[in-house]
C-alpha cells in the first residue's frame, strides 16, 4: 500500500499558518513512508471561495517549501483536484446513498427546522435533528416532491448508541450517536457539503491517512458512517492539536497575525517558519530546535506529536528567524533573501506608482517608502499629537477599523474604502480627518504615500498588526473598555 496523505484547504481567505502546519505534518508523514502528498481545494462554499485565495494558498505553501505530488496546478491521475469541478461525482454518490436507504430527501423549510429544534429543546433533548424528527407524512412528502419544492439530501444516523472512532494519536474516541444530526450531504443548490465531498474524494483519491486539525473530531462519526454506507475502507484518522496563542486561546487573527502573507511581508525566512511549524507539538529525537525540512522528514514519527496545545509564539519564531539570518546565510545568501523578500520587481512595481509622483531625486524614495519595508513603525503617543481627537476616541476609531478589516475577504483598495466610508459615517468625520490617525499608524509619519494604497499593498494582517500596535502605543484597551467597545460596535 502506498501511503497517501492530503491537505484540503478551503480557499476562503488569507493562507493560514494552521493550514501550513497541517500540510507540513501530512507531507512529512507521507515522505517518511515513501508515500505521496496531495493538495485538494475544497471550494464547495461558492459564496466564500475565491480564486485569489486559492492562489495565495498555493503560493504560500510553495514558498514554505511544502511541495505536493498531485494538485489543481500540477495535475495527477485522480483529478480534478478542485471540488467545484467534481459536482457530478457527488450527486451520483448522494443518489447511491438514497437508493440504498442511507440518505433521504428532506423538504423541511427553515421555519419548520427552527420549530423542530424548539420542540427538542423543550423536551430537554439534544438539539441534533434526527431522521425521525425530519420525516414528513408520506402524502406531504409526495406533495412537496410533486410541487418541486427545494430539498436537501441528508444522511441517516442512528438515534442512540455509541460510535467508536479510532484516532492515531488519541486512541479510541467515543461519541454518543444521540448528539449526531442527520447531516446535510447535498445542499438545495445541488452542491455537496464538506462531509460528503471530503469522504468521496478521500476515497477516490486513495487517501490512506487523514491528518487534520482537532476541530474536525466531531465530524469523524459521520464520516465513518459514510464509509460504511459506501462499503469503503476508511483512511486512518489523526487529529492534530490546534495551534494556540501564548495565552492558550485558539490561534486567531483577532489576537495575532495568522496569515502566511504577514510572515512573508515581515521578512521571515521560509525555512525558519517551516522549522518553527515543525516544532508545534513535535520535536526531533535529540530535541534540537533548529532543523531543516529534510531533517524533519528523515526523523519524522507521528507518535512524537504531543497533544497539549502547541503555542505559536511570535517571539520564539522571531528568535529562530534571527538565528537563520545570522548563522545560516553567507553574504550571497543574505543578499538573495533580501531580494526575494522585497527588493524585487514584483513588489517594487506596486510601490513605484506611490512614490514616483512625489520625488525630486531617487534618494527621496527610500525615506518615503520606508513603511513598505518595515514591521511596526517607530511611533509614540506623541506621534498623534496633531490629531484633533481625544485619546479614547482615537483608540475607538482604530479598534473599530481593526474589527471591520477582520471581515474583509478580498483585500483590495475598493473593499477597504467601503469599510472606511462606513466608519466615517458612524464617527461623523470627513474621510481626511478619519484617515489622519490611520495614516500615522500605518506609515509612521503624517505625510507619506497614500494610506489606502499602502494598506492594500502591505496586506491584511500587516495592516491590522500596525493598527493594533498604534492602539497599544496609545495606552491599549482594558478588558472593561473592550467590552464597552464591542457592544457599541455590534450596534453599528
Ligand atoms: N476543507 C477542510 C478545511 O478547510 C478540510 C478538513 C479536512 O482535512 O478534512 O480545513
TrEMBL record:
ATP binds at residue 253. Its EC number is 6.1.1.17. Transmembrane segments: none annotated. Its main location: cytoplasm. It is an enzyme of class 6 (ligase). A motif ('HIGH' region) lies at residues 9-19. Residues 3-319 form the Glutamyl/glutaminyl-tRNA synthetase class Ib catalytic domain. The keyword Nucleotide-binding applies. Keywords: Aminoacyl-tRNA synthetase, ATP-binding, Cytoplasm, Ligase, Nucleotide-binding, Protein biosynthesis. One of its GO terms (molecular function) is glutamate-tRNA ligase activity. Residues 334-471 form the Aminoacyl-tRNA synthetase class I anticodon-binding domain. A motif ('KMSKS' region) lies at residues 250-254. InterPro entries: aa-tRNA-synth_I_cd-bd, aa-tRNA-synth_I_codon-bd_sub2, aa-tRNA-synth_I_CS, aa_tRNA-synth_I_cd-bd_sf, Glu-tRNA-ligase_bac/mito, Glu/Gln-tRNA-synth, Glu/Gln-tRNA-synth_Ib_cat-dom, GluQ/Sye. It catalyses: tRNA(Glu) + L-glutamate + ATP = L-glutamyl-tRNA(Glu) + AMP + diphosphate. GO terms for cellular component: cytosol. It holds the Pfam family Anticodon_2. Belongs to the class-I aminoacyl-tRNA synthetase family. Glutamate--tRNA ligase type 1 subfamily. HAMAP family: Glu_tRNA_synth_type1 (MF_00022). PANTHER family: GLUTAMATE--TRNA LIGASE, GLUTAMATE--TRNA LIGASE, MITOCHONDRIAL-RELATED. Monomer. This is Glutamate--tRNA ligase. It comes from Halomonas binhaiensis. The lineage of its organism: Bacteria, Pseudomonadati, Pseudomonadota, Gammaproteobacteria, Oceanospirillales.
Amino acid at each position: 500500500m502506498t501511503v497517501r496523505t492530503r491537505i484540503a484547504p478551503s480557499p476562503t481567505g488569507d493562507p493560514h499558518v494552521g493550514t501550513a502546519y497541517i500540510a507540513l505534518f501530512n507531507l512529512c508523514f507521507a515522505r517518511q513512508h515513501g508515500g505521496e502528498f496531495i493538495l485538494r481545494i475544497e471550494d464547495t462554499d461558492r459564496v466564500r471561495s475565491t480564486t485569489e485565495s486559492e492562489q495565495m494558498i498555493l503560493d504560500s505553501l510553495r514558498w514554505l517549501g511544502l511541495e505536493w505530488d498531485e494538485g489543481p496546478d500540477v495535475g495527477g491521475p485522480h483529478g480534478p483536484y478542485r471540488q467545484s469541478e467534481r459536482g457530478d461525482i457527488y450527486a451520483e454518490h448522494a443518489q447511491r446513498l438514497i437508493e440504498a436507504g442511507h440518505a433521504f430527501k428532506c423538504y423541511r423549510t427553515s421555519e419548520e427546522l427552527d420549530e423542530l429544534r424548539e420542540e427538542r429543546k423543550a423536551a430537554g433533548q439534544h438539539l441534533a435533528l434526527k431522521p425521525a424528527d425530519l420525516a414528513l407524512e408520506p402524502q406531504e412528502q409526495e406533495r412537496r416532491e410533486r410541487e418541486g419544492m427545494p430539498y436537501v439530501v441528508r444522511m441517516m444516523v442512528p438515534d442512540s448508541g455509541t460510535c467508536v472512532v479510532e484516532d492515531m494519536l488519541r486512541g479510541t474516541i467515543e461519541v454518543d450517536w444521540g448528539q449526531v444530526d442527520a447531516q446535510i450531504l447535498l445542499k438545495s443548490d445541488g452542491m455537496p457539503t464538506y462531509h460528503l465531498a471530503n469522504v468521496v474524494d478521500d476515497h477516490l483519491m486513495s487517501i490512506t491517512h487523514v491528518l487534520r486539525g482537532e476541530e474536525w473530531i466531531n465530524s469523524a462519526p459521520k464520516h465513518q458512517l459514510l464509509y460504511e454506507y459506501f462499503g469503503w475502507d476508511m483512511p486512518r484518522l489523526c487529529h492534530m492539536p490546534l495551534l494556540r496563542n501564548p495565552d492558550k486561546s485558539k490561534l486567531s487573527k483577532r489576537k495575532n497575525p495568522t496569515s502566511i502573507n504577514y510572515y512573508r511581508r515581515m521578512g521571515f525566512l521560509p525555512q525558519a517558519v517551516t522549522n518553527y511549524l515543525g516544532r508545534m507539538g513535535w520535536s526531533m529525537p535529540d530535541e534540537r530546535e533548529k532543523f531543516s525540512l529534510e531533517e524533519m522528514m528523515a526523523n519524522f514519527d507521528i507518535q512524537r506529536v504531543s497533544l497539549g496545545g502547541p503555542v505559536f509564539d511570535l517571539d520564539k519564531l522571531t528568535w529562530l528567524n534571527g538565528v537563520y539570518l545570522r548563522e545560516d546565510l553567507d553574504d550571497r545568501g543574505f543578499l538573495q533573501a533580501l531580494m526575494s523578500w522585497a527588493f524585487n520587481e514584483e513588489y517594487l512595481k506596486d510601490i513605484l506608482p506611490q512614490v514616483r509622483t512625489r520625488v525630486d531625486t531617487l534618494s527621496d524614495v527610500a525615506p518615503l517608502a520606508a513603511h513598505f519595508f518595515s514591521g511596526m513603525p517607530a511611533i509614540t503617543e506623541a506621534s498623534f499629537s496633531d490629531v484633533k481627537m481625544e485619546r479614547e476616541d482615537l483608540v475607538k476609531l482604530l479598534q473599530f477599523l481593526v474589527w471591520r478589516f477582520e471581515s474583509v475577504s478580498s483585500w483590495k483598495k475598493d473593499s477597504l474604502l467601503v469599510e472606511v466610508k462606513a466608519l466615517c459615517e458612524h464617527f461623523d468625520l470627513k474621510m481626511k480627518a478619519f484617515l489622519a490617525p490611520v495614516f500615522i499608524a500605518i506609515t509612521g509619519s503624517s505625510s507619506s504615500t497614500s494610506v489606502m494604497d499602502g494598506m492594500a499593498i502591505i496586506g491584511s494582517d500587516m495592516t491590522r498588526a500596525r493598527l493594533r500596535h498604534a492602539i497599544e502605543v496609545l495606552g491599549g484597551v482594558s478588558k472593561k473598555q473592550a467590552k464597552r467597545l464591542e457592544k457599541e460596535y455590534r450596534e453599528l
